[in-house]
Specification:
The chain has twelve helices and four strands; from the N terminus they run E-E-H-H-H-H-H-H-H-H-E-H-H-E-H-H. By secondary structure, it is mostly helical. It has a domain of 203 residues. The strands form two sheets. A two-stranded antiparallel ribbon has the order 1-2. Strands 3-4 form a two-stranded antiparallel ribbon. Helix 6 packs antiparallel against helix 7.
Length: 352
């Protein structure tokens, strides 16, 4: 990579603003993709990008997240795993005049031991993914508010592991364990939805303000958290439907659409990390070749790039609440009493 006329391979991971390998500090421009993909550029840049990638905690977390998303899709759509290739389903013809809701809920739940074991394994991967995302926030206090969605992610993963362990105990559509699983997964979906909006807050607090990043589809981070939020909303709707109408369990496949969107988000998180490690140096800046991001000067009151917002700790929020509550309230105005009333009060106390 050419920096000030010289090639450098140094990586300053402690100071993001002074990192010459960061894509927003790129000083070399290319007139076409073919010029950017010359062997000299590949030979110079790929080792630097690879070294940054293998040291990235965030990339490791995203890879585990992608494995989890792929595993869910395999269960959903691989007939050799979910058993849809064999004739293990039961068709029921209900007569509205003779069949009551109670008899419908007495129908058995058809579960496969292999699928149940897969779900338990994926739940364990989910917990690992939650830990890695928490661990990837290097240099941040564990009391930082951006850690709140990471803690919620652990709670959600634990709830899904709990429900996966109980899958083997399901008996009928209206059975105790079946309904309990619906309630557990409803709680997990609620926690996930809250965490999804928390991740948007974390991204807003930390993303680098520069050209091509932010609230734009040019930024893969934006597409990623949009996909995560949309999938969480789909899961929430599905769980509401299942809890209201338990007889839909096993036939309502709305969650599969959420799994697809979930996988798309996992892919875009990978793209965002590769972008941050400058693997896409050959792509144009905002669709324009011949422009080096590090040489662009923006005439604005806002300096670019800027590196997120100042950290806010959870304890800071508590201190603000305590200070606000300790502010003395204004006393109500009490008009002075008439002197006659004062004399009468003194005489009354003397008489007593």
């Amino acid at each position: 990579m050419v920096i000030n006329g010289e090639e450098t391979h140094t990586i300053n991971s402690n100071d993001e603003a002074n990192d010459p390998t960061a894509p927003y500090n790129e000083l070399e421009s290319f007139d076409s993709i073919w010029q950017a993909l010359r062997w000299k550029q590949i030979q110079t840049r790929v080792p630097v990008c690879f070294k940054k990638t293998i040291r990235s905690r965030y990339m490791l977390a995203n890879l585990v997240y992608l494995v989890y998303a792929i595993g869910i899709l395999i269960i959903d759509f691989n007939p050799n795993v979910n058993g849809s290739s064999s004739d293990n389903t039961m068709d029921y013809d209900y007569d509205d005049n003779t069949t009551t809701m109670i008899s419908v809920l007495d129908q058995p739940v058809i579960g496969l031991p292999l699928v149940n074991r897969f779900y338990i394994g994926l739940a364990a991967v989910h917990i690992l993914s939650a830990f890695l995302y928490w661990w990837s926030w290097a240099g941040r206090s564990w009391l930082d508010i951006i850690m709140i969605p990471e803690y919620l992610n652990h709670v959600e993963a634990g709830l899904y592991l709990w429900s996966a362990i109980w899958y083997s105990r399901e008996d009928t559509l209206g059975g105790y364990y079946t309904l309990a699983i619906h309630k557990i997964e409803m709680t997990a979906a609620t926690v996930e939805l809250i965490a999804s909006f928390g991740w948007i807050m974390s991204w807003y607090m930390t993303y680098v303000r520069t050209l091509g990043r932010g609230f734009t589809l040019d930024d893969p981070d934006t597409v990623a958290w949009l996909a995560t939020t949309i999938s969480s909303i789909i899961y929430m709707i599905y769980n509401i439907q299942i809890n209201v109408q338990p007889e839909q369990y096993g036939t309502n496949l709305l969650y599969t659409y959420g799994d697809i969107v979930y996988f798309v988000g996992a892919c875009y998180y990978i793209f965002a990390t590769l972008r941050d490690e400058n693997w896409f140096w050959f792509l144009p800046l905002s669709g324009q070749y011949g422009v080096a991001p590090g040489r662009v000067q923006v005439e604005s009151t806002k300096s670019l790039p800027t590196y997120g917002k100042p950290p806010i700790l959870i304890t800071d929020l508590c201190k603000c609440c305590r200070i606000k509550n300790n502010i003395p309230k204004k006393k109500h105005y009490e008009p002075p009493q008439n002197n006659i009333f004062k004399i009468e009060n003194e005489l009354h106390r003397t008489a007593l």
